[in-house]
Specification:
Layout: H1 3-19, H2 35-44, E1 64-69, H3 75-82, E2 88-95, H4 98-110, E3 117-120, H5 124-131, E4 136-139, H6 143-155, E5 159-162, H7 170-183, E6 187-189, H8 197-207, E7 214-222, H9 226-229, H10 239-246, H11 254-263, E8 272-279, H12 285-293, E9 312-318, E10 323-329, E11 341-344, E12 348-350, E13 357-359, H13 367-377, H14 380-392, H15 398-412, H16 420-427, H17 429-438, E14 444-445, H18 481-484
Parallel strand pairs: 1-2, 1-4, 2-3, 4-5, 5-6, 7-10
Antiparallel strand pairs: 7-11, 8-9, 8-14, 9-10, 11-12, 12-13
Length: 487
């Protein structure tokens, strides 16, 4: 990270902190939480809740004016997906590099929409939020910018939707909670895996009681990212590789955790109580840096560094005595896996390794029986736009379903499927897993970001009740146009 960017973030933290009345001034650091910082974060759980954002329905927005920040890895895809959604106005695009904003603007105009306003530079995103009357700020920047950008958006009257993880520190998790409650602006973490077709099926089956009482679940992010993390053309200034040097533990918990947390009604009937985390040593990343540097001096700065443990395993106990296991490994040469295992008193579902499987006893049910379960328990959102989502794309369609659902909720004044408490509790596993590792894998308490409202918060709504009215533009209809609302 350049010294200019460090200074920029330092000033930003000071500036945004001045806007957060009532938020404790924790040490601004992304290092392992100190005992004092952890205590202050836990003490926050004991205070009264300002306003409950779980189940909160913000006023309807007929035309959702969106500003996008970050047009590197994930940004262009988000712009393209949103260009298919009716009731959306793509107002502005921002990136550190002006050419990236311009490139994404070509996506906007190609879709037949008016060109968006372009912003760039270190402070371009603040200028964009200051000048444009935005309803939603869609954040796809590097991890360390997610929190300040989301805070700034909410402080300036916009809802915030951010890529994962939305926060790297306990302090930032609480800032997001406090600001969302005070401004009554949604703060959604864009956990696309919650909209995977099988994950949605198992969520509905769990909700309908087919697995009995869900007592254990497992999720993961196991994805060999070595080539991408060490690529000069990948992440700007090699920022993701640098995160693998700066931190240990579960750096990216939410893809595996989000879907199973919803199946277990975390923050909506139960809460995560404490965790224990353990990591192996690094056996490959340091060696790869050394090998690359032998022929390319560009990689010299990455030689001799301590990289995060190759396999991180975190186990979580809930207030109701249930357990979750979450793993992180982006180094090992093995097939992609999120595990997604949901185990209850009557049955179990598992996705990775393929194929998708469900059992209600010692044997997995047969393929034709699985098809019947799909026919009976596929949620309404998949029935409505699933096939179009597959055509438009984004991780097989789950990205588009996430975006469509977000816009449909905003346009119809519905609560979001993932609120700020989900964003905070799923993201906090990052620093808390580091804390556990620093204590020789001792247990670490997890803050209750709902401040007790988890006991009465309603589960995520799986129907499209009150919504489902948002159209999809420019996609060939595959079935009944009335049902899919294509025009």
């Amino acid at each position: 990270m350049s010294s200019n960017r460090r200074n920029f973030l330092r000033h930003l933290a000071i500036g945004s902190g001045a806007l957060m009345t009532g938020i404790p001034s924790f040490a601004s650091t992304a290092a392992v939480p100190t005992d004092a910082e952890l205590k202050r974060a836990l003490d926050q759980s004991k205070k009264g809740q300002r306003f409950n954002m779980s189940g909160y329905a913000a006023p309807k927005i007929d035309k959702v004016r969106i500003g996008f920040i970050g047009q590197g890895m994930r940004g262009p895809g988000a712009v393209q997906r949103m260009s298919y959604i009716d009731g959306v106005e793509i107002v502005a695009l921002c990136d550190l590099l002006p050419e990236r904003a311009t490139k994404s603007n070509a996506i906007v105009t190609k879709s037949g929409r008016p060109a968006a306003k372009e912003y760039s530079g270190e402070n371009g995103w603040k200028e964009m939020i200051d000048k444009e009357k935005l309803d939603l700020v869609y954040i796809t920047s590097p991890w360390d910018l997610h929190t300040p950008m989301a805070l700034y958006a909410m402080e300036h009257g916009a809802h915030a939707a951010s890529e994962v993880p939305i926060a790297l520190t306990l302090e930032d998790c609480w800032k997001l909670v406090e600001t969302s409650e005070r401004t009554k602006k949604h703060c959604m973490m864009l956990e696309n895996c919650c909209y995977d077709f099988f994950e949605l099926l198992t969520l509905n089956m769990a909700r309908q009681g087919l697995f009995g009482e869900v007592v254990h679940a497992e999720g993961a992010y196991i994805h060999d990212l070595r080539d991408l993390n060490f690529s000069k053309k990948g992440y700007q200034n090699m920022w993701r590789l640098r995160e693998n040097i700066a931190h240990n533990g579960n750096l990216y918990p939410t893809h595996g955790l989000g879907p199973i947390a919803q199946c277990m009604n975390i923050n909506r009937g139960d809460k995560m109580d404490y965790l224990v985390s353990m990591s192996s040593n690094d056996f490959m990343m340091a060696n790869m840096a050394k090998e690359l540097a032998a022929t390319d001096p560009f990689y010299n700065e990455f030689v001799g560094k301590n990289y995060r443990g190759q396999m991180s395993t975190t186990t979580i106990k809930t207030a109701k005595g249930k357990t979750l296991m979450v793993q992180h490994d982006v180094t090992s040469p093995r097939p992609y896996s999120r595990i997604h295992l949901v185990s209850g008193t009557k049955g179990v579902a598992s996705k990775w390794p393929s194929p998708e499987r469900i059992a209600f006893g010692h044997s997995w049910i047969k393929e034709e029986e699985l098809k019947k379960l799909y026919d009976q328990y596929t949620p309404e959102i998949v029935q409505k736009i699933g096939e179009m989502a597959k055509q438009i794309g984004g991780h097989g369609g789950m990205d588009f379903m996430m975006d469509w659902r977000l816009i449909d909720c905003l346009r119809n004044g519905l609560p979001l499927d993932q609120d700020v408490y989900d964003a905070a509790s799923w993201s906090c596993i990052f620093p808390l897993s580091e804390k556990s590792l620093s204590k020789r894998s001792n247990s670490v308490d997890i803050p209750d970001f709902t401040r007790g409202s988890w006991k009465t918060n309603a589960p995520v709504e799986l129907t499209l009740k009150g919504g489902g009215t948002t159209g999809v533009i420019g996609v060939e209809k595959k079935s009944d146009s009335k049902q899919l609302n294509v025009h």
